[in-house]
Amino acid sequence: MEAKEIIARRVAQEIEPDSLVNLGIGLPSMVANYLPKEVNVFFQAENGVIGLGSRPPEGMEDPDLTDAGGGFVTAVPGAASIDSAMSFGLIRGGHLDMTVLGGLQVDERGYLANWMVPGKMVPGMGGAMDLVAGAKHVIVAMVHTAKGKPKILHECTLPLTAQRRVSLIVTEMAVIEPTEDGLVLKEMGPDVTIDDIISSTEASLIVRGDVPKMRL
Amino acid sequence: MKQAIKAARAAELIPDGSTLLIGGFMGVGSPHRLIDAIVARGTKDLTVVANDTAMPGRGIGKLVTAGAISRVVASHIGLNPETQQKMISGEIDVDLVPQGTLVERIRAAGVGLGGILTPTGLGTMVEEGKQIITVKGQDFLLEEPIHADFALIAAHQADYVGNLEYSLTAHNFNPIMALAGETVIAEPQTIVPVGVISPDSVKTPGILVDHLLERQPDGS
Questions:
Q1: Nearest to B96 among A48, A68, A125 (CB)
Q2: Span A118-168, pLDDT tens digits
Q3: Could you tell me if the ipTM is greater than 0.90?
Q4: What fold characterizes domain B7-113+145-212?
Q5: For the segment A41-97, what is each residue's pLDDT rounded down to a tens digit?
């Protein structure tokens, strides 16, 4: 199984029925593909829809209905269109149950850096800072290393997205829960050992007893 | 009642050096005909406050290409490499603001608030130079209102009072910006007789709208 599919499948298991969820662009958006049909979830796109649906068939696109990446989408029955103040009011006001975002770095405090690489990539934070500051649960979905270098560090070297401990880190190698005591290794990915995970992670990991494999 | 005007006439109202609020999210819900008219007129030295600068060749991206902008206040410029190049070369000054903070700063200006207190940006680069205010034991950043000379709004439908209705994700910043521009110019796709839009459907009351653009010509 490809790394991204492992991550998306595992994150999908975290989504509670009847919740409001915001999926970031790219890898996080794949999570929607792996939800069990019976789980009724409203997806929010922060550009203004609650009840985001799948891509429309060709020729049935509405130019006024896109996701936060600018791609054409549909809205499910029961959807609501909202303006940006309402959208971010929901996010900041604690009405958003979960956000799933990509990450550049996460550190031992559980702090996330995912919006810029000084001197190289300055796209802007968009909605990321509000999402991480405001969502009830923040899940970071990312590949474990970048070009062989660890992304889970003692301390982030890139500018932080928020001063808030994220709820969970899901990579193709591990599920890690940031806690007050540090990063706890909760699950291992398929085909990896604890040593593999530790050698691909700069941060110290807390390993308690037997660490189960992800059930995908 | 308002007489609808041509886009070129609306563009003439906007002098060089103006600060513009422009609705839209990656070009969706942007006033495209107004933007084209500003580009055609060759207006310069604009400060543009918007969620993003779309992409080259689309919406606000056309203003970037035309060299009309000297300053951008936005949450995201990632899909427009030209904005990033012009930021690096120093041609455009870019102020990046978290999206939820941006919309509330604009709203604050429009509704008479002296600022907003938000947890977003605490402990990040956004915090630099800003006052931290503690309320009931919780820290917040004080973010100031963003006022503008003009708000350029895209709407789905208007009537000749100027009442506006929006469509799906083309709402985005538009209803908020309509509160905050000194002069508000609205570009509807269609204009219907007064009374057709139900009062319950009006998102922006016509009293906020100073100028109404002609309806979209057929076939465009």
A1: A125
A2: 988 889 999 999 999 999 999 999 999 999 999 999 999 999 999 999 999
A3: yes
A4: Glutaconate Coenzyme A-transferase (3.40.1080)
A5: 999 999 999 999 989 999 999 999 999 988 999 999 999 999 999 999 999 999 999
Domain ranges of chain A: 3-206
Of A47, A49, A74, A131, which to mutate for an interface test with B (greatest number of B Cβ within 10 Å)? A47
In terms of residues, how long is chain B?
Answer: 220
Q: What is the DSSP letter of B108?
A: H
Distance, CA of A122 to CA of B72 (rounded, Å)? 14
Is A66 in CB contact (< 8 Å) with chain B? yes
Indicate the DSSP class of residue B219.
Answer: T
Burial of A53 (0-12, 13-18, 19+ CB in 10 A): middle
Size of interface A-B (CB pairs under 8 A): 143
Residues 6+ apart with CB under 8 A from B125: A159
What are the tens digits of pLDDT across the range B62-76? 999 999 999 999 999
Q: Would you state the CATH architecture of domain A3-206?
A: 3-Layer(aba) Sandwich (3.40)
Q: What span, in angstroms and rounded, lies between the C-alpha atoms of A215 and A34? A: 13
Residue B217 scores a pLDDT above 90: no
How many angstroms away from the CA of A173 is the closest CA of chain B?
29
Measure Cα distances from A147 to A115, A143, A150 in Å. 19, 10, 9
Residues B49-73, mean pLDDT to the nearest whole number: 98
Within a 13 Å sphere around the CA of B80, how many CA atoms are in the beta-carbon half?
Answer: 31
Q: Do A133 and B103 touch (CB under 8 A)?
A: no
pTM beyond 0.90: the answer is yes
| Domain residue spans of chain B | 7-113+145-212
Q: Which residue of A has its CA nearest to B76?
A: A124
pLDDT value, residue A146? 96
Q: Which residues of A touch B156 (CB under 8 A)?
A: 64
Chain B contact for A64 (CB, 8 A cutoff) = yes
